[in-house]
Amino acid sequence: MSELTADEIVDLSLRHTLYDWQQQGSMRPIPVASAKGCEFFTVDGKRYLDFNSQLMGVNIGHGDQRVMDAIAEQGRTLSYISPFMATDVRARLGRKLAEVRWTLAGKMALAWCFTLPIAALVGGLSGKVADSGNAGVTVIALIAIAVVSGIYLLSRRNAVTADNVNDARTVAVVEPEAVPA
Asked: What is the rounded distance in angstroms from the CA atom of residue 115 to the CA atom of residue 12?
């Protein structure tokens, strides 16, 4: 239980800390006391379903014992060291990050080079047609409905379900080699 009231927590937090992704001073944060699974709880005991956790955290839920054990183990081993130091965890993570498939990243960048101008063209043309009045707006709406319906039907051809989600490819789990001391 917190020594501060919900209002005190919010007021002090707004006065002395910054919030990312927010215009400072334009929001009123929720005073959270605890979280478990897919829910979090306020200082006053109100329960919320956390729809935001997949954006900012791990999607296995709050308070997962495996995550807490891993954090505790790392804390017992080395809780903090200067960013100018080298550590086992840093070395293994660096090796893993070096395995990024840059050809795929290049293809994604190339796709964006086509997507953005085409989106601008479609948006501009849609605006021109819509400016012609109710008939133009109706044409744009019908085209949009047809495109969305087509995309939906294409997506249903090979629907991904719990039974086949892992069928597309297998992932080999490779244990990292020990980093020499």
From this structure: 44
In degrees rounded to 5, what are phi and psi of residue 166?
-100, 5
Of the candidates 64, 68, 58, 55, the residue with the CA atom closest to the CA atom of residue 36: 64
For the segment 47-60, what is each residue's pLDDT rounded down to a tens digit? 998 887 656 666 67
Query: Cβ atoms within 10 A of the Cβ of 158, count?
Result: 9
pLDDT for 69-103, tens place per residue?
988 998 998 888 888 889 888 898 888 877 767 77
**Run of H or E including 36:** strand 32-36
User: 58 with 68: CB under 8 angstroms?
Assistant: no
Q: Which residue in 2, 31, 38 sits closest to 14, CA to CA? A: 31
